[in-house]
């Protein structure tokens, strides 16, 4: 289904998304390359071993070195792709985020959920998270909201009970109480 | 342990009431999960893992295999009834099963797929039993040089199979290998790249990466499109007529197609990184080429359904071959199975089949048993399948995300693992949006410690690094690694030339 809506708005979006992706790739890989160079230098301080020719730092340095080469290669490739796109088109970063607002909202809710869990416990955090995400995804009123409340209660409390009583895996109960 | 003893012991463990019951639940969960669009087989397996921690090893693995085999059939349901593949493994199934269902034969389309899945799983279990033990015998003789080269080969194959850019694929593999080095060094225990942070002190467990990449970021992609969230009415109406045994004969009357597709599935499953999502398309394509009436493919004919479904189901057994024989998981699902064994304290590698023969035979038997259970469950419950696919994403996504959190927490009972999960999920989502393939990253994280340990062991045994190129098997594997990259580069250049012309 997402395919069909994608296609509908394709002609005007194609150019800008190509350009946005190329630009994002250049920035992303340049940043990674800088990070990996830093880590490469830092890995030099890792101790070597009396028992083996390779110490703790050699394998990471091998990988980091190769990574930097690949990052730079992608930077070059993306920069060439960027030059071929029409500089007049906009990158459309704002619209890109707006189009994916539901995904980012869901991920943000998941992040809050993880941060709240040690404080208010798994059961309550899950209940709130389940309700919040269902509301975000469209269960706003009437029967759907009722189902959302039901699902939140059943899974929030049910999973907690299932894991702590049946599978004997303890989930956080919360610092606050 | 002699073979018969091991076999009897595995039968005894497998046919206990607890194991049979948990396998049956696993089969149902697998079928239902894969039937829901947006819920992949890998997610189902990952979420089963914490449940198996308290089970004995064989029961745990058998339950996960049940979910796996069940999932192989479940994707067919939404493919046939809605024209939406429930999992990527069922893409080719939509080509013929859906038109068949639209023409008023939804029952026949489902039954064909279920039988084809069953026979595909049977064929793959047979190949697994025949191929894995001898391969393990050879693998035991491999030294650290060969192992390191084998992993390089596996990593390059994965990087070249998935995605459109080999540079990005290889970059992701390397990133995975690097992520695996965070935390304690595998041989000396020195902390690496932790920066004194609690979150990183224990490293980044590969299961957290697995859940983050294959579940969290995947789920985020599922909810992108606001309009798609309001699911449409079911498109297939009409009565469902099931004639399971007539259809069984119909499937068996195509032995060539069935066997070819199944064997293709096994081979593709055994290649690291490839899996059901590739096997169904290749099996369908090959069946079309071999057919006398290729023009009828896509209009709703039985051959298309049989090829796709037997092909994707057969990857289950194929993927287990490298895991059992070499200790190298061929796919994300096999990696989770391997993790389940490792959590139980069983070391996975070529010696597995000798040290824990009862477990390995139990896994073989569980494959057959699970295939039978899926068949029985599907044939009985087909009538209700349509309802499963109607569950809206607004419910599925948050519930599965909570299950992901449970999975990450159950692993080591560390809240920091949950924070890592959120981080990996977000990074994974952004990487996927920038067209970076994620499978090589996950495989890199899993294979990283094995690669490093073997590299360092090899150089400890002999400081001469040229041995990697002079030992014949090691040299051959390295050559294959180079060739896999070279062929991919050539293929991509050709595609680009065609696109330009």
Automatic annotation (TrEMBL), chain A:
Keywords: Membrane, Transmembrane, Transmembrane helix. Residues 30-172 form the DUF1468 domain. The chain crosses the membrane at residues 22-41, 62-82, 102-133, 145-171. InterPro entries: DUF1468. This is DUF1468 domain-containing protein.
């Amino acid at each position: 289904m997402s395919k069909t809506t994608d296609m509908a708005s394709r002609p005007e979006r194609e150019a800008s998304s190509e350009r946005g992706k190329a630009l994002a790739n250049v920035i992303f890989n340049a940043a990674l390359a800088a990070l990996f160079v830093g880590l490469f230098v830092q890995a030099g301080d890792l101790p070597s071993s009396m028992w083996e020719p390779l110490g703790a730092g050699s394998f990471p340095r091998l990988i980091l070195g190769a990574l930097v080469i690949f990052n730079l290669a992608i930077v070059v490739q993306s920069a060439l792709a960027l030059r071929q796109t029409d500089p007049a088109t906009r990158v459309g970063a704002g619209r890109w985020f707006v189009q994916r607002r539901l995904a980012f909202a869901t991920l943000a809710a998941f992040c809050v959920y993880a941060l709240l869990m040690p404080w208010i416990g798994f059961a309550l955090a899950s209940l709130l998270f389940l309700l919040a995400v269902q509301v975000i995804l469209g269960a706003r009123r009437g029967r759907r909201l009722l189902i959302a409340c039901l699902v939140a209660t059943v899974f929030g409390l049910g999973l907690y009970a299932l894991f702590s009583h049946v599978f004997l895996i303890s989930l956080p109960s919360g610092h606050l109480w | 342990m002699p073979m018969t003893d091991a076999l009897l012991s595995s039968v005894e463990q497998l046919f206990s009431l607890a194991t049979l019951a948990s396998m049956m639940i696993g089969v149902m969960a697998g079928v239902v999960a894969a039937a829901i669009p947006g819920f992949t087989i890998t997610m189902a397996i990952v979420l089963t893992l914490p449940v198996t921690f308290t089970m004995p090893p064989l029961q745990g693995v058998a339950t996960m295999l049940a979910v796996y085999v069940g999932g192989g059939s479940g994707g067919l349901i939404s493919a046939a009834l809605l024209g939406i593949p429930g999992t990527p493994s069922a893409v080719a199934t939509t080509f013929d099963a859906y038109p068949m269902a639209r023409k008023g034969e939804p029952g026949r389309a489902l039954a064909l797929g279920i039988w084809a899945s069953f026979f595909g799983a049977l064929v793959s279990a047979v190949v697994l039993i025949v191929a894995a033990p001898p391969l393990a015998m050879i693998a035991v003789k491999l030294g650290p040089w060969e192992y390191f080269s084998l992993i390089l080969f596996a990593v390059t194959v994965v990087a070249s199979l998935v995605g459109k850019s080999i540079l990005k694929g290889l970059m992701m593999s390397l990133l995975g290998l690097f992520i695996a080095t965070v935390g304690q060094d595998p041989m000396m225990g020195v902390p690496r790249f932790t920066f004194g942070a609690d979150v990183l002190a224990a490293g980044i467990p590969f299961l957290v990466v697995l859940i983050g990449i294959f579940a969290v970021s995947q789920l985020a992609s599922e909810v992108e499109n606001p309009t798609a969230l309001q699911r449409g009415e079911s498109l297939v109406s009409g009565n469902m007529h099931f004639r399971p045994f007539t259809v069984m004969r119909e499937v068996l009357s195509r032995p060539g197609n069935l066997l070819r597709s199944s064997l293709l599935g096994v081979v593709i499953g055994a290649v690291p990184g490839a899996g059901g999502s590739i096997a169904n398309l290749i099996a369908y394509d090959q069946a079309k080429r071999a057919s006398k009436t290729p023009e009828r493919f896509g209009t709703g004919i039985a051959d298309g359904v049989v090829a796709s479904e037997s092909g994707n189901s057969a990857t289950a057994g194929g993927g287990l071959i490298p895991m059992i024989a070499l200790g190298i998981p061929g796919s994300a699902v096999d990696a989770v199975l391997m993790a389940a064994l490792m959590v139980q304290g069983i070391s996975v590698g070529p010696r597995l089949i000798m040290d824990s023969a009862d477990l390995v035979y139990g896994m073989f038997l569980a494959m057959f048993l699970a295939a039978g259970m899926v068949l029985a469950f599907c044939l009985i419950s087909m009538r209700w399948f349509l309802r499963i696919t109607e569950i809206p994403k607004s419910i599925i996504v948050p519930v599965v995300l909570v299950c992901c959190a449970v999975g990450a927490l159950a692993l080591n009972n560390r809240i920091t693992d949950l924070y890592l999960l959120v981080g990996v999920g977000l990074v994974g989502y952004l990487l996927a949006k920038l067209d970076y393939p994620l499978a090589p990253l996950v495989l890199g994280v899993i294979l990283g410690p094995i690669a490093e340990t073997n590299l360092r062991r090899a150089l400890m045994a002999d400081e001469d690094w040229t041995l990697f190129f002079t030992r014949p098997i090691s040299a051959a594997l390295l050559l294959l690694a180079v060739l896999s990259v070279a062929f991919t580069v050539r293929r991509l250049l050709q595609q680009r030339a065609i696109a330009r012309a």
